[in-house]
């Protein structure tokens, strides 16, 4: 149980284009989803928290107009990196919380984004 | 800014030995302290977590010890195996909401 998927697993895009990453909870309903960014050999940096049907809450320093988050249903959240630049290249990971234990987060496998 | 301080940064243990990773936290909204295991190129996987009503939790070879007064908790991996070689992250709830603060990670290498 508590399986989270991400799509795509890796993507290469050209500078200036936008990329959408999907995060799905496969066997549970996730009222809250989180988006993280991870650089090589570093920790997880929380970018934003999203609740189904409401606007995402972004962490300080994260550009909300650049990283668009939509949590349209209890099983799907999307992260769109707009006008991507090489410095946006990173490993993006989502996680989802089950309703009964809000702090328990289950992570997706991650998406490797490379901007050329 | 809230922090979760994790040590050591890296750890080498012989097969069959005990791996110990420590974390210290600041004030949290709720007492819930998980450990995650991450292999290269993969997302973190929830390994074990402890809630405030107990000072120790054991699941197989993995044990969390929790010291509330010292605001510290640790992960013990008994009979460490080469397959345990991974990066381990501790986490603690932020002051508000349901998000977690993560430690910087410990890279564990278990030698044959």
Descriptive report:
The complex is a heterodimer of chains A (116) and B (112). Chain A is mainly β and 116 residues long. Chain A has no helices and eleven strands. In chain A, strands 2, 4, 5, 6, 9, 10 and 11 form a seven-stranded mixed β-sheet that branches. Chain A has a four-stranded antiparallel β-sheet with strand order 1-3-8-7, with no helix packed on it. In chain A, strand 9 and strand 10 form a beta hairpin. The relative contact order of chain A is 0.33. Chain B is mostly beta strands and 112 residues long. In chain B, the strands form two sheets. In chain B, strands 2, 4, 5, 9, 10 and 11 form a six-stranded mixed β-sheet that branches. Chain B has a five-stranded antiparallel β-sheet with strand order 1-3-8-7-6, with no helix packed on it. The N and C termini of chain B lie far apart (40 Å). The interface between A and B is medium-sized, with 25 and 22 residues.
Architecture blueprint of SSEs:
The complex is a heterodimer of chains A (116) and B (112).
Chain A: E1 4-7, E2 10-13, E3 19-25, E4 30-38, E5 44-51, E6 57-58, E7 67-73, E8 76-81, E9 90-98, E10 101-107, E11 111-115
Parallel strand pairs in A: 2-11
Antiparallel strand pairs in A: 1-3, 3-8, 4-5, 4-9, 5-6, 7-8, 9-10, 9-11
Chain B: E1 4-7, E2 10-14, E3 19-25, E4 33-38, E5 45-50, E6 56-59, E7 62-67, E8 72-77, E9 86-93, E10 100-102, E11 106-111
Parallel strand pairs in B: 2-11
Antiparallel strand pairs in B: 1-3, 3-8, 4-5, 4-9, 6-7, 7-8, 9-10, 9-11
């Amino acid at each position: 149980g508590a399986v989270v998927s991400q799509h795509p697993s890796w993507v290469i895009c050209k500078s200036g284009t936008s990329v959408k990453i999907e995060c799905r909870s496969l066997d549970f309903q996730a009222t809250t989803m989180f988006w993280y960014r991870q650089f090589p050999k570093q920790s997880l940096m929380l970018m934003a928290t999203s609740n189904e049907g409401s606007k995402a809450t972004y962490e300080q320093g994260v550009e909300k107009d650049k990283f668009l988050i939509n949590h349209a249903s209890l099983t799907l959240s999307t992260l769109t990196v707009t006008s991507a630049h090489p410095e946006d290249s990173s490993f993006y990971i989502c996680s989802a919380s089950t309703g009964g234990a809000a702090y328990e987060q289950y992570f997706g496998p991650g998406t490797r984004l490379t901007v050329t | 800014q809230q922090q979760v301080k994790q040590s050591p940064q890296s750890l080498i243990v012989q097969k069959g030995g005990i791996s110990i990773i420590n974390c210290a936290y600041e004030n949290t909204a709720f007492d819930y302290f998980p450990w995650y295991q991450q292999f290269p190129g993969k997302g973190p996987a929830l390994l074990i977590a402890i809630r405030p009503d107990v000072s120790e939790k054991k699941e197989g070879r993995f044990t969390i010890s929790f010291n509330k007064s010292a605001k510290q908790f640790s992960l013990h991996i008994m009979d460490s195996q080469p397959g345990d070689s991974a990066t381990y992250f501790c986490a603690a709830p932020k002051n508000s909401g349901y998000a977690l603060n993560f430690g910087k990670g410990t890279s564990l290498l278990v030698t044959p």
